[in-house]
Amino acid sequence: MNREKIIQVENLTKEFGDFTAVDSISFDVYKGEIFGFLGANGAGKTTAMKMLIGISNPTSGKAIVAGYDVFSQAEMVKKSIGYMSQKFSLYDDLTIKENITFFGGIYGLSRKRIKEKIAELVEELQLQEVANHLVGSLPLGWKQKLSFSVALLHEPKIVFLDEPTGGVDPITRRQFWEMIYTQANKGTTIFVTTHYMDEAEYCDRVSIMVEGKIEALNSPKKLKEQFKVDSMNEVFLKLARNIE
Amino acid sequence: MSISVQNISKSYQQLKAVDAISFEVNEGELFGLIGPDGAGKTTIFRILTTLLLADEGKAKVLEYDVVKDYKSIRNSVGYMPGKFSLYQDLTVEENLTFFATIFGTTIEENYDLIEDIYVQIEPFKNRRAGALSGGMKQKLALCCALIHAPKVLFLDEPTTGVDPVSRKEFWQMLKRLQQKGITILVSTPYMDEASLCDRIALIQKGKILKIDSPQNIISNYDKLIYDISSKNTHGLIHDLKNYPSQYSVYAFGEFIHYIDSKKDFNPSDLNEYLEHKKHSEIIIQPAKTSIEDVFMDL
Q1: In the prediction, which pLDDT does B161 show?
Q2: Does B176 lie in the same domain as B287?
Q3: In a domain, B220, yes or no
Q4: DSSP B223
Q5: Contacts with A39 from chain B: Cβ below 8 Å
Q6: Best interface-test mutation with B: which of A130, A137, A169 has the largest number of B CBs within 10 A?
Q7: Would you say residue B148 lies in a domain?
Q8: What pLDDT is stored for residue A88 in this prediction?
Q9: Which of A43, A167, A201 is nearest residue B253 as measured by Cβ atoms?
Q10: CB contact under 8 A, B37 and A140
Q11: Most exposed: A62, A124, B91, B280, by fewest CB within 10 Å?
Q12: β-pair partners for B154
């Protein structure tokens, strides 16, 4: 199959003093793929992700994201990707419209385009009644959906989602995944971390990091076959059992 | 009775965070408050640990009234808030010593209670708490909440954001603490953890929807759930939602969970419909009900 590689990682390494947080990882992610990036706390996921989005320099190795080198072309990487983190999502004391306007401006969208985007998102997420409310007053589930949409404002080729559904109720969690599917069907590549193992099943392919290394990478189905278990939860427990 | 809550309500301006909630936790019980963000779990914890006054209702912990006897409660319960609230600039050992001193005890005096957990973080005892990984912070916080040998332990979302391995280990620790006679009230947004509690309260938007043992909640669920899969998952959800007699359709791990509204539902009719919709590798089989299924139908 001739598929376009949108992320290419070769021997990517990050050391902090004598501690190797990311230890020579290599993998590819294809265009339009939902790629699950799993690992225990402290396995090196966040460090690896920071390098891929151009905000942390690798100690050695190479990564090409959306056609740009994360080390020498970090600014171009940032322009071509979207990023959503659970921690630093939106400004609580700005309204929904103000947040969209602000991030639209940061991404360099024209005023006209921002106006269109506001109308589009308010319609899509059914935010008509709360568009002028402060984001801080929204339930977490709404905030997460909105910040996903904001991460997509500049129509990036890839969007990085760092635990997008933590603490969200089961229904909203599924609605969020439907948004992910829809976006992936449009050709956007999704790179996502999660601690919900049922969500790992929704990914096209999943990698599992253990102590800085990628110990497994395949479709959920193949991983379950490989480890002879029935669920991704068991795959994860088997792989990560030896740590701590 | 270790905890008794009667018609407790609490509002923040317009928002009714907790709406006339009542429940009781027996001595030595591991009781779970299960619900999503914004359900009111933290408010309940703060009222029971005497950090917040309820607008209405009564609550007792170890027979002490949460308003009148707040000092006695504070001396006899341990509380691990959802937000990491230890001193980031103090080391692991300093944090623990600090909490022991506040309660007029020493690490040595109650060491047997925390030993299991503390040995796992002891190699890092000179590291600042702020520099610990998520799993280790959580273990330290639990040690600090236990250091004065409380009779009741309040744990507010101790496993949120924690990976599956650490979550599993954490629940094993809770079981061991329970065996030592400690009553535990724990909250979690992870539905799979509900089955590890003796009894649970399912809570949403400030109201308790159900209280029972996880086994009873599951066995009292009267609808039949089917696991369905085909090669094209996304298309499958869409097509199932358009099936005339569908009651609910949602992703559940590797399968779609499907419930039909008809009593005389025949899976082979659905199979035919899906084949007609060009699905291949169709599987339709009865599914095992989980707490998450029940929760989603409340």
Answers
A1: 79
A2: no
A3: no
A4: S
A5: 163
A6: A169
A7: yes
A8: 59
A9: A201
A10: yes
A11: B280
A12: B79, B185
Examine the domain organization and report whether B15 and B124 are in the same domain: yes
Does any domain span residue B219?
A: no
Which residue is it, tokens 């050992």? Answer: B93
Whether B218 maps to a domain, the answer reads: no
Our separate counts of H helices and E strands in chain A read 9, 10
Same domain (yes/no): B48, B144: yes
Q: Which chain A residues are Cβ-neighbours of B140 within 8 angstroms?
A: none
Determine the pLDDT at residue B152.
97
The beta-carbon neighbor of B251 closest among A43, A202, A233 is: A202
DSSP state for residue A103 in the 8-state scheme: H
Label residue B74 exposed, middle or buried (CB < 10 Å: 0-12, 13-18, 19+).
Answer: middle
User: Total structural domains in chain B?
Assistant: 2
Task: Give the residue from B213, B248, B267 where a domain finishes.
Answer: B213
Q: Min CA distance, A241 vs chain B (Å)?
A: 7
Instruction: Give the pLDDT confidence score for residue B160 in this predicted structure.
Output: 84
Across the interface, which of A170, A201, A221 has its CB nearest the CB of B296?
Answer: A170
> Which one of B160, B165, B202, B204 makes the best mutation probe of the A interface by having the most chain A beta carbons within 10 Å?
B165
Nearest-Cα distance to chain A for B275, in Å, is 22
Pick B164's closest partner by Cβ from A140, A167, A195: A195
Q: Let me know if A79 is exposed, middle or buried by CB neighbors in 10 A (0-12, 13-18, 19+).
A: middle
Residues B9 and B40 in one domain: yes
Largest Cα span, chain B: 73
Yes or no, beta carbons of B166 and A140 under 8 Å apart: no
Mean pLDDT of A183-210: 93
Complex-level ipTM: 0.77
C-beta atoms of B134 and A140 within 8 A: no
Question: Which residues in B lie closer than 8 A to residue A16 (C-beta atoms)?
Answer: none
Say what percent of chain B tops pLDDT 90: 81
What is the C-alpha separation between A88 and A165, in angstroms, rounded? 14
Would you state the pLDDT for residue A242?
56
Domain boundary among B190, B213, B236: B213
What is the model's pLDDT at position A243?
A: 46
Residues B123 and B255 in one domain: no
- Both B138 and B254 in one domain: the answer is no
**Model confidence at B269, in pLDDT bands (50, 70, 90)?**
very high
pTM of the entire predicted model? 0.84
Whether B106 and B82 have beta carbons less than 8 Å apart is answered as no
Contacts of B169 in chain A (CB under 8 A): 244
pLDDT of residue A244: 41
CATH of the domain at B187: 3.40.50.300
User: Which residue carries 């030993």 as its tokens?
Assistant: B115
Nearest C-alpha in B relative to A39:
B163
Q: What's residue B292's pLDDT?
A: 93
Q: Are residues B98 and B150 in the same domain?
A: yes
Dump pLDDT digits (tens) for B32-47. 999 887 889 999 999 9
Q: So what's the pLDDT on residue A2?
A: 59
- B84 and B165 in a single domain? The answer is yes
Calpha distance A156→A158 (Å, rounded) = 5
Share of chain B above pLDDT 70, in %: 100
Give the domain extent around B239: 226-297
